[in-house]
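Protein modeling request. Please complete all fields; requests missing the sequence field cannot be processed.
Requester role: graduate student
Desired output: 3D structure, token encoding
Chains: 1
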Amino acid sequence: MVQAVVVTNFLGTSRASSEAFKTANLLKTLTVNALIYGETGTGKLTLARYILPNAPIFTTEKFDELLEAVHTNSELIITHIDDAPNLKRLLDAIKLSKTRVVVTSNESTLSEILQDTFSVRIHIPPLSERLEDVKPLLELFMQEANAIFGEDKPFVMPTYELDLSNNAISLRKQLFLHYQFSNIGENDLMGIMEQYLSDKLGSKNDYRNYLHLYEVPLIRVGLREFKSQLQLSDKLGLNRNTLRKKIAEHNHYGLE
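Delivered output (256 residues):
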């Protein structure tokens, strides 16, 4: 079984994460340039920092400063290299300099010029393709939330559908929201709703337009809890046909 890897918050139990970490360890002992690529939130920068822990980090936004840094540093991390306004010029500068460089790319398919420049490449797949890494990431985020909010809640694997749309970024945001909402009271909830609605009211149909903010979560939780529309209609004190109409009305929110 592949053991969990914990290095400057780069975690993983999946084979892909383990292979990426092995390559990163090898790169720490070599003096070759490397490229780490994958979707946003997959841990590319974290792994780059592990390989070159003392290197300054540059984006491609201030291109002239970046070109100068390529020639004046012994080590360098460059993020979002695909966004460079003149990629060929940047890559030519990297080839001519003695600076050791690790770059990151958000592209899943690399351009030919990048492949030609970087013979050592690490691909980090999205979390949806390495589900074994989700639990250790959630445990890390839970520890972080406990430290921030001064609590000591035990980790329990969530029962809600996990948001992996933006990999670790969306997963962390989702856990923090649920962490905060687990302690929320009625007054807190109403305060959030008031803040949300404060600049949205003004039409003649606002009551109907925003009623779904109450109905959708109520029906969604009820269906998950009671498993059937018949039981839910009884618990809510609604006519079954009325409930069916409301579900159909809000079906674009995933009610069924």
